[in-house]
């Protein structure tokens, strides 16, 4: 079914992947509302910008007027909220924006959703994109949707706050909302502050590959096209008030990810450096996706193939990352890693 969607945070890594899928594969009409932080870039939808069913509005989700204006222009059947500050290290250094965007921004969007009619042919009126990090770390086994929330960083704590607010609008106002929690995403258009794109670009440039601590932390990798499809499944088939976990098919230790990137880029093992660990670093994430699989979703991309494709994308799309790597990112990198890029 073709629908009109308001996609908040649609200029980011996963949001733009979701927008591309919905526009090109489902024929939806998409309006993106995005503040364009350092991570939100028009380059992420360069191939979609002139599409007749695509509209971009620059604005913040915590700005009630901007949100009302976007709803008036787009008349969406549903709002899908990707808008977030997403880097754990930045949340440790400067938590302010995380609190504002996740707690207050989500509240503004939920209030705006209440102005949409409660029921539609479509079903859900709001989908919150969330993360496995709200459950905290798990030594063995996998988190289900019933697992308690035990977030450990300002990033995950404020994402959990947003999830609780979303759930409260279902219980209190009967608002047809759902939450989709993903595991670690990777793929094209990911900002190079995150493990995989950072290591790929550093490897290609002969820079050091900074592994936090012993590098034995495990992440449950999911390709961004698979997570986007899971969010689409929840939007189309999800039940109001429910949470759906969408985890990737593979769990890999960080050091193993970095070794594979060294192989794929032809870099040197000697570029790998163990550096100071992240404070409060979660050791392992793992999600059970049984519930969203029951909606008919299944991940299509295995890590080995997806990583090779991702490395190839970064090799072939220097136009996308060169302005980042030569801009204010350099100052961020120096602050975070205490050293300059080449
Ligand atoms: P990203 O940092 O690439 O993109 C975030 C987008 O939100 C950017 O376009 C940014 O400009 C926009 N934004 C930030 N604050 C805003 C505000 N106040 N108002 C409007 N727009 C704002 O992030 P991503 O990796 O694409 O993550 C998208 C969503 O998916 C987030 O909610 C994140 O918590 C969640 N998630 C991410 C991962 C992952 O591994 N990257 C995994 C699970 C869930
Ligand atoms: O699990 C889902 C989450 O995954 C999302 O909700 C977050 O938005 C996203 O940033 C990601 O969080 P992580 O902290 O797991 O991702 P990051 O890429 O920052 O780090 C992945 C692992 O790699 C983590 O154990 C820390 C480690 N790491 C990271 C960087 C940037 C390093 O060892 N060195 C690095 O330089």
Q: Which sheet architecture does the biggest sheet show?
A: 7 strands, parallel
Task: Quote the beta fraction.
Answer: 15-25%
Number of E-type strands: 12
Average pLDDT works out at 97
| CA-CA gap between termini | 49 Å
- With strands numbered from the N-terminus, the spatial order across the biggest sheet is 3-2-1-4-5-6-10
Q: Stretches where pLDDT falls below 50 for ≥5 residues?
A: none
What's the quick description here?
By secondary structure, the chain is of the alpha/beta class. The protein has twelve helices and twelve strands.
Explain how this protein is built:
The chain has helices at residues 13-25, 64-74, 88-93, 96-114, 154-173, 195-205, 224-237, 254-265, 290-293, 303-316, 318-325, 329-337, and strands spanning 4-8, 29-34, 54-58, 78-81, 126-131, 177-182, 185-186, 209-212, 218-223, 243-246, 250-253, 272-275. With 342 residues, the chain is α/β, with parallel strands linked by helices. The strands form 3 sheets. A 7-stranded parallel beta sheet has the order 3-2-1-4-5-6-10, sandwiched between helices. The chain has a 3-stranded mixed beta sheet with strand order 7-9-11. The mean pLDDT is 97. Bound molecules: nicotinamide-adenine-dinucleotide and 2'deoxy-thymidine-5'-diphospho-alpha-D-glucose (DAU). 2'deoxy-thymidine-5'-diphospho-alpha-D-glucose is lined by residues 86-88, 131-133, 183-184, 194-195, 198, 210-212, 217, 219, 254, 278, 285.
